[in-house]
Amino acid sequence: xxxxxxxxxxxxxxxxxxxxxxxxxxxxxxxxxxxxxxxxxxxxxxxxxxxxxxxxxxxxxxxxxxxxxxxxxxxxxxxxxxxxxxxxxxxxxxxxxxxxxxxxxxxxxxxxxxxxxxxxxxxxxxxxxxxxxxxxxxxxxxxxxxxxxxxxxxxxxxxxxxxxxxxxxxxxxxxxxxxxxxxxxxxxxxxxxxxxxxxxxx
Length: 202
What we know:
Helix content is 55%, strand content 15%. Helix 2 packs antiparallel against helix 4. It has one domain. About 14% of the residues have low confidence. By secondary structure, it is of the alpha+beta class. The longest helix is centred in the middle third of the chain and has 39 residues. The protein starts with a helix and ends with a helix. The strands form two sheets. Strands 2-3-1-4 form a four-stranded mixed beta sheet, with helices on one face.
């Protein structure tokens, strides 16, 4: 379990990664990005870097990436206009955020598995546990950090490390959920925008 502040921090990380996924995909395709904002509501930070406005809203949850040409009011430009892309390239930009969330989850899960494996490996090497016993023990205390006290395994003195691992695990799970929710075709989701792109090409 994680606390409220840890939960908000996880959502903030998800929003940053998601919007960067849109931004980087658009830039790789040569499209101009007008604005990237993390959070909604009143703007706390607003600056311009690399030809893009970067902003942070006070809620620190959610966000959006404004790619030049998505808005019909944007004047046509010769280079970097979203409207000049093939519809499959448009889908790549739309799904860039979802892809970034999936990659984040994979990296975090891999890191957790590595940390757990290293901890259990040390316990086995120290002779405190047999390999099968360590495997069963690791399954029960997933997210905790192991160490030895007088030759016996203990979790008590590494609660902070366990909290960090639990937060990483929660962030990875939430990242998967965010990706799945964004696939639902509604007006406010990437799935909805992707559906509209496909409909326009029919």
